[in-house]
Design brief:
With about 325 residues, the chain is mainly alpha-helical. It has helices at about 1-5, 5-25, 40-55, 60-75, 95-100, 105-115, 125-135, 155-165, 170-180, 185-190, 205-210, 225-235, 255-260, 270, 280-290, 295-305; strands spanning about 30, 145, 200, 240-245. The structure holds protoporphyrin IX containing FE.
């Protein structure tokens, strides 16, 4: 009754809620410098350990950046990707996560943090802080990481299978998958720029070389010269060979991957798909034309947004002592 009288204001209120709630649900309780009082050196410790790791194993930058993404997209950024299961039923055991590496680095950072401040810094926050260090170590810009995440204690193989986005995904689904996590079309194109570092297994894109429509054909949207080159490296059914996603600058955070996509040399369908939407395409074009005028800063902004997905904060969840095991 009251609502019919005040129909307009009710509608407005509902609309406000519709648009505000996802923002509130993502990231509430996080802040920059969360450990300032409880573990003042937390971020410096992460930086120090990561400096040691990167100096001997720079190829871990890609996998460690990807790990935060894989954590956040399944159940939110709450460290579930790190959990082991005695029956091999946790996220780690899902096929898309077989190619994750760097779990020992996370353990190493955790051990150093536990020594300095036992029981304070969550594994979920370690993933977010480590991801920033990988961006920095490869030549990207630093950004303030919000912290205060708590660790969840549930990790389910099937959720990783369902929620991690396959490389065969088209632009419509990509946009929807990002939107349902509070991420925009701009975040999609910016974060896809993470493929400027790291490697991929041939098996993640070989359908585009050998069997695109089930008739032994190649993907016509992929540059044919590039296909020929990739075929030299990736034989059919190759499950082990790695290729550089951004050949020549695989350990450098730059805009060359956007350049490749524009030249129809993006490795995954999901990368090529960025040419199929006017907004993502315009972003690529602009960054290429301007030498990455905003990409470096945009990446930090989008990483912070990604780091807010489905976080657990306050007194919920726990701070794990060992990242692979619930307390
Ligand atoms: C948009 C949807 C995305 C899809 C479909 C996708 C898919 C993939 C695939 C298939 C690989 C290769 C895995 C392998 O075969 O070893 C890969 C690697 C990688 N992805 Fe993505 N990705 C996406 C978004 C992201 C985001 C948002 C980030 C981070 C911000 C990211 C960072 C990386 C990195 C750094 C690697 C290299 C890993 C390594 O060197 O081992 N990806 N991605």
């Amino acid at each position: 009754m009251a609502c019919s009288k005040l129909f307009l204001s009710c509608l407005l209120l509902q609309l406000t809620f519709l648009f505000l709630v996802p923002e509130v649900a993502h990231g509430q309780g996080l802040k920059v410098g969360f450990y300032q009082k409880t573990c003042p050196n937390a971020e410096a410790i992460v930086k120090e350990v990561m400096g040691q790791v990167m100096s001997v194993a720079p190829s871990l930058s890609g996998p460690l950046l990807r790990m935060h993404f894989h954590d956040c997209f399944v159940r939110g950024c709450e460290g579930s990707v790190l959990l082991n299961s005695p029956t091999n039923q946790s996220e780690k055991n899902a096929i898309p996560n077989f190619s994750l590496r760097g779990f020992q680095t996370i353990d190493r950072v955790k051990t150093a943090l536990e020594k300095a401040c036992p029981g304070i810094v969550s594994c979920a926050d370690i993933l977010a802080l480590v991801a920033r260090e990988t961006v920095l170590a490869t030549g990207g810009l630093s950004y303030d990481v919000e912290t205060g995440r708590r660790d969840g204690n549930v990790s389910i193989l099937n959720e990783a299978l369902n929620d991690l986005i396959p490389p065969t995904t088209n632009i419509t689904i990509l946009k929807a998958d990002f939107a349902k996590r509070g991420l925009s079309v701009k975040d999609l194109v910016v974060l896809s720029g993470g493929h400027t570092i790291g490697t991929s297994h041939c098996s993640s894109f070989s359908d585009r070389l050998y069997n695109f429509t089930g008739k032994g054909d190649a993907d016509p949207t992929l540059d044919s010269k590039y296909i020929a080159r990739l075929k030299l490296r990736c034989k059919p059914n190759d499950q082990t060979t790695l290729v550089e996603m951004d050949p020549g600058s695989v350990r450098t955070f730059d805009i060359k991957y956007f350049d490749l996509i524009q030249k129809r040399r993006g490795l995954f369908t999901s990368d090529s798909a960025l040419l199929d939407d006017s907004e993502t395409k315009a972003y690529l074009d602009l960054q290429i034309k301007t030498g990455g005028s905003t990409f470096f800063e945009d990446f930090g902004v989008s990483m912070v947004k990604m780091g807010r997905i489905g976080v657990i904060t306050g007194t919920a969840g726990e701070v794990r002592k060992v990242c692979s095991k619930v307390n």
